[in-house]
Amino acid sequence: MAMNREWADKDYYADLGVSSSASADEIKKAYRKLARANHPDSNPGDTKAEERFKKVAEAYDVLGDAKTRKEYDQLKSMIGKGGLGGFPGGFRHTTAEDFDISDIFGSGTGSGGGFSEDSGFGDIFGGIFNRGGGAGRAARPTRGADVETHITLDFREAAKGTTIPLELSGNAPCTTCHGSGSRSGQPKKCTECQGSGFVSEQKGAFGMSRPCAKCSGSGQFIDDPCGTCAGSGTVHRTRSITVRIPAGVIDGQKVRLAGQGEAGPNGTPAGDLFVSVTVRPDKVFTRTGDDLEVTVPVAFSELALGGTITVPTLDNHVKVKVPAGTPNGRTLRVRGRGVPKKSGNAGDLLVTVEVQVPKDLDPAATTALRTYAQAEKDSGFDPRAGWAGAR
């Protein structure tokens, strides 16, 4: 991966929480810990965690590779020692805060103490920062592009997980050359950079690296390009894939499916697929986290006398015991009957009982209810006893 001009403003060691002298193993360990803690799949809907995940991924892309880490360290060292001062044209800066990197790596107008492309410095730094070095010097992408799509799921599909077919349009591996870009299927190692993708050159006191112009930074050279894809290894087409949506996704969550994005050029890894999920409300269930919630209509007698009621779950129905004397609105917990978790367990089913009052009673029921009401009064029961509004 070639250096880019944004490095001057980034502190990748701080992003990973390690010192600049950290070993490769320490950097890898720090990255894995932070990536696991801030992964979008573990923090649905948390945009701050998603941004932290992107930062640590970017930091590891640079520091996790010995070559790019060395180039990054060299750039930061030059900035820290006075900021690339002493160049022709009288440019110099005092602190990193005052340093405007665009003064150096600009378009070469020659104003403000800068320098032109013809001076040679535009070529040096243009090669490093992916500009000014000619069209053939931009490094090729090291992976395919990420793809975003949107789906709408029923409540129960989202809670239990589902498999859905998707149609995606974009770069896919060329079927003629199997993604290699070569008719023979055997790209050759670039003789200019010996397969590294970069060439070094000495400009005065500076040793600089830039993407190899012959292979565009890929490290490979194709002398027999595939006629179907013109040597890119990819073609634009519509493809059908089947993706597994994990159990427990919530409305608005973005699910990342690694390697399901667009194919990378010349056999490099594919990008990722990000699926934004909308969940339709359910007529019976709601949820809080991994707990499933349902409100069940009951008769007064079922609460007063107790008994067993039948309650729906995501899969079937279960029997729930209602203790005698249960008040209206009480919530009963049925463990393990909620939304499945990644661990293999499940949340709980929360059953709220709600008394339904009959609108019409036949004469026999009316007589029985009046008899009960009198017996209730004779027993001394007062539903408003202790109520603040009682007289």
TrEMBL record:
Keyword Transmembrane: no
Cofactor list: Zn(2+)
Residue ranges of domain CR-type in the record: 161-238
Principal localisation: cytoplasm
UniProtKB keywords: Chaperone, Cytoplasm, DNA replication, Metal-binding, Repeat, Stress response, Zinc, Zinc-finger
Pfam families recorded: DnaJ (PF00226), DnaJ_C (PF01556), DnaJ_CXXCXGXG (PF00684)
Lineage: superkingdom: Bacteria
Residue ranges of CXXCXGXG motif repeats: 174-181, 190-197, 212-219, 226-233
CDD domains per the UniProt record, alphabetical: DnaJ, DnaJ_C, DnaJ_zf
Annotated Zn(2+) 1 binding sites: C174, C177, C226, C229
Positions that bind Zn(2+) 2: C190, C193, C212, C215
PROSITE patterns in the record: DNAJ_1, DNAJ_2, ZF_CR
InterPro entries: DnaJ, DnaJ_C, DnaJ_domain, DnaJ_domain_CS, HSP40/DnaJ_pept-bd, HSP_DnaJ_Cys-rich_dom, HSP_DnaJ_Cys-rich_dom_sf, J_dom_sf
UniProt subcellular location: Cytoplasm
HAMAP family, per database record: DnaJ (MF_01152)
NCBIfam families hit by this protein: DnaJ_bact, PRK10767.1, PRK14279.1
The protein's assembly and partners: Homodimer.
Assigned protein family: Belongs to the DnaJ family.
Protein name: Chaperone protein DnaJ
Species of provenance: Corynebacterium breve
Top-level taxonomy: Bacteria, Bacillati, Actinomycetota, Actinomycetes, Mycobacteriales
